[in-house]
Amino acid sequence: MTDNDLHADGGRASSSATRIGVDVGGTFTDVALTVDDRLVTAKVPTTDDQHVGVLEGISKACDRAGIEPAAIDEFAHAMTVSVNALLERGGAKTALVTTEGFRDVLEIGRQNRPELYDLEAEKPDPLVPRQRRFEVDERTTPEGVERAVDPDEVRALAADLRESEAEAVAVCLLHSYADPENERLVAETLREELDVPVSASHEVLAEFREFERTSTTAVDAYVRPAIDNYVGRLVEESEDAGIPAPRIMQANGGITDPETVREHAVTTTLSGPAAGVVGAAATVDDADVEGLVTFDMGGTSSDVSLVRDGRAERTTDAEIDGLPIRTPMVDVNTVGAGGGSIAWVDSGGALRVGPRSSGAEPGPACYGRGGTEPTVTDANVVLGYIGSETALGGEMTLDVETAHDALERLADEAGLESALEAARGVYRVANATMTRTIRSVTVERGHDPREFAVVAFGGAGPMHAAALADSLEVDRVVVPRPGGVLSAFGLLAADESYDAVRTVGVGLDCEARSASDGRTGSEATRETADSSELEDVYDDLVENVLADASDPDAARVERAADCRYAGQSFELTVPVDETFDADAVAERFHAAHERAYGYAMDESLEVVNLRATATIPGTEPTVRHKGAGDAHLGSRNAHFPGAGVESRKTTVYDRDRLASGAAISGPAILEQAESTTVVPPNWGGEILEDGTLVMRRAADETEVSER
Amino acid sequence: MTTNSTTDPTDADGIDPVTLEVLRNQLESVAEEMGQTLIRGAYSPNIKERRDCSTALFDAEGRMIAQAEHIPVHLGAMPAAVDAVREYDPKPGDVFVLNDPFTGGTHLPDVTMVSTIAPKTEGAPESDGTEIVGYAVSRAHHADVGGMTPGSMPAGAQEIYQEGLRLPPTRLVEGGERREDVQSLILANVRNPTERRADLRAQLAANERAEERLSALFDEHGRETVLSGFDAVIDYSRERIADEIAALPDGTYEASDVLEGDGVTDEDIEISVSVTVDGETIGVDFSGTAGQLEGNLNAPIAVAKSAVYFVVRCITDPEIPPNHGCYEPVSVHAPEGTLLNPDPPAAVVGGNVETSQRVTDVVFTALAGAAPERVPAQGQGTMNNLTIGARDGSFTYYETIGGGFGARADRDGMDGVQVGMTNTLNTPIESLETEYPLRVGRYALRDGSGGRGRFRGGLGLERTVTVEQDATVSLLTERRRHAPKGVAGGENGAVGENLIDGDAVPAKTTVDVAAGTTVTVRTPGGGGHGDSDERDGKALEADRSAGKRTDSDVETGETDR
């Protein structure tokens, strides 16, 4: 929790301000509004022109809160404009300029095929077709410019680009991360000559590996006009409505002003899922666990991320639809099982769940909109987790019979006794596939899932979380109160954050590390780091990140270095102090290597990239949850894993009415407008002051024989 | 074998459709976690970045239950390793290490570790912890295992003794006690002992993970359910693959093709296959293939098996989980003393990389007789191995280069990708120019190299590398005179070309060059599919405007075998 007073002068809203977060998802636009210490949420359908739904959502939430939109002090926003442009290949007609001989790098990629055994597989189409990929005669090496660009050639190129009717241009020359001189000249000349945006790779991502840098730069150019257009329009409409200009979520989990994202469009991809993880990190105390596994189960898929030390874990190795994007992003892993995933029996006689989904239309059979295939949601209906009376916030009635029929047909096909058996099976199989992903995400990063807590959100997440925790041997599950709109809530809690990187590629001159023992590769050709040169690079990077910050004086600047053992191609990022101390960096690297991979080695080190991050801490909204009246809604029969075939009488509560401090013992079901939580018989729960539900496994009830 | 009945909820193993799917996920998850543990802990870039490694779980009879493989050449090689270890009377607490191509290995850099699994579980019989219920296996390509050149992939080897340290199944851990003497012996024979120690430790950690996880599964489901689950997942894969094989028309399908010399001889070397589809089984017989070679293109039988399994997986549903059940209906025979089943002390290091590619080509070609719509035209059929090293040993650069994928029955072949038994990444130009005294002048799609057809073969690549100091250049390539074939009237792809300062050199070349010399590798294009007159006008125009097809396409090599 940050100290609000620190930022009172920095122009940041205090927690008592009226703040709104709006997250546009594929189906719904979610809104979280805080007024004083009240939290109001709303959901409206996403519209094709996303700003229409955004403004509708804002007015719906304001109506519920009983305030005028003009009373809003701060507006934070995440949207899917850029990711949609990529997925639908609907971005700008983009041109690419490369070093002569290398225009195909973007198309060749890393020369691997996408699937090992699938003869029908296709590589993703390059964002820039060959006709619009142009070359310039120049050469830069790791040491610097070897052959300068001819300005006349660039002006001639500008004419070709104009003729190609390009709407955006990406420039990526070899080794421009080491010396951007040629690339800068090309980009500046093109900016003078052309009326379209020009993205230069050393500005987007000054990092070595030409394909990944080219791809990232091409994505930036490709989505830039769409982002510029959308953000520009939303700023205007907000102004008309008397709302402050939106601050925009970036995929790195940090928030920034609209002008900055218009210049750095690539940072807006996948910002919605990032906001959800930030929301989980903000609402859940992880002091006594190794970290958090966030589990967001939606209609078609589930997202899994890790939070450590209160921060969402980030990756610089992300891909969208096969296109690498190397700017830092919150690391979101998707598994193809959601509430709408369809269950079926395959030719080998196994009961499978997904990857096919019933989608928003017709939706699961129980929606009664024409769906007949059994989905995970239908199984949850048959198991009694979702009831006919109060389901889905009362905005939709459930057709229990249709769900039952769908599961009955599945039972026949699978040779199972009843619809109930089929439903139990679907629940178990869906959980098994999600458990597999969670195990993989944690183990791959060197963690033991047992030392984590699970944070469940999304419409279906809290219905499955305790069962997942059982098989992961996790003892605690946390369900934030705004679980159905956690991304929108996360927008309110996000820090402002900016990243910059530059590849330096030098040996680390530190003590007590012996020379290598006759390895292949030639670290002999590497110069060792001159710390004053590294300081110069850091100065540039810091200047760069502060230039975007809304209040440079309030920003916390962190410096880091990506290091590796000489001859390896895997880097680890370690923090760097205010002065570059090679021995300290080496020490941290060895410790980080030990932590990540289980050992450290007596080998020479290389500093590959330098990084700087500027962060202005966000103000976490203070929400006090009161609860009201009788939370007891009644009871119904529900079925739990391993608890025998007979159903258990299960108390149903209105989650929002439960007062803080309320204790719940399983079996119980907590219903809420956007989601339903299942507390199995061997679990208990407690409502915290802000309305968060913490569930713990009871030590004594160990009747779980199968999961 | 039981056929699935829609009225019987459980199969012969007493496992219902739900438990089957849950256990399948959990057992595959064990293999995956082993793989992640291995990749995290390894040092060799081959393992860590290129993922040239595999992990698997076997039952007590040596049948594979689940595998996490990252490259196809390990598909058939893991069972051979377990079979070899089982000849050595394994006991609980034993961990074997091996790489001998003639006892369970494929080529020496691939080091395999096989651990016995004998978990102790709560309330289990007294025999618990003493009974082997399965094996954990990890296989990884180590950066060096000794021999005549750094990297242990010597181009000129004619005996296996030159290729590195040879390990028949050897106990690295005996009854739970680490044998430091064995480890010292291994480390004394390799160039980077510190790195190898890390790689071996990573493999050991991966295998240990299997026992830990399996024992948790015993606790969760009960020992008997899990052991029945082993049978159930094998039956499951067998059933699915058998259905697909049964759908192929019975018959015997033949094909042959050649390797273009082995560096000792420049003569063509024949590989012949006869594939018999009979009901739910496939028999693959390599009789008629050339005898074993003086050079290093010999391939142990496990390589041929891997190639056959690869093809079978490709033409059936690739989603079928790879385990013993997939391979049981497929038998592979190659006469002893031949290219595909050599006797010691044959050199074998090239068998994995080039011979395996040609084996996939002939098996694909034969099976095209049974499933013409599923088999693409031939792809580039080579890995284009390029090695450039300083004569003083100060650097060694090794790389394989992608090329054209064969055209499919309903779409063009992919341009510039790895085909067949490999799928490793390229070395970024910015990385190699920083690490080595080399300069790349061009890396591009090779226009016009895809075989014409209703659907076009994928384009090959061109990579041009200039050496900045005196060096030895070694090329181990194929499809330089026999082009990748088109099918159904499609034309052949372009043959590859190797040039040194503009002059053509043979498919297998090792030559000393002076600073400033430029090596150009042009990789083969894929064959076309169908008559080129039937090519869609838009596709033709798209190719023309992208420059992927030229009006005077390069020579596509001979048109007949």
UniProtKB/TrEMBL annotation, chain B:
Domain of life of the native organism: Archaea
Hydantoinase B/oxoprolinase domain location: 16-531
Molecular function per GO: 5-oxoprolinase (ATP-hydrolyzing) activity
Annotated segments matching region Disordered: 517-561
GO cellular component terms, A-Z: cytosol
One Pfam family it belongs to: Hydantoinase_B
GO biological process: glutathione metabolic process
Residue ranges with Basic and acidic residues bias: 530-561
PANTHER family linked: 5-OXOPROLINASE RELATED, HYPOTHETICAL 5-OXOPROLINASE (EUROFUNG)-RELATED
Name under which the protein is recorded: Hydantoinase B/oxoprolinase family protein
Lineage: Archaea, Methanobacteriati, Methanobacteriota, Stenosarchaea group, Halobacteria
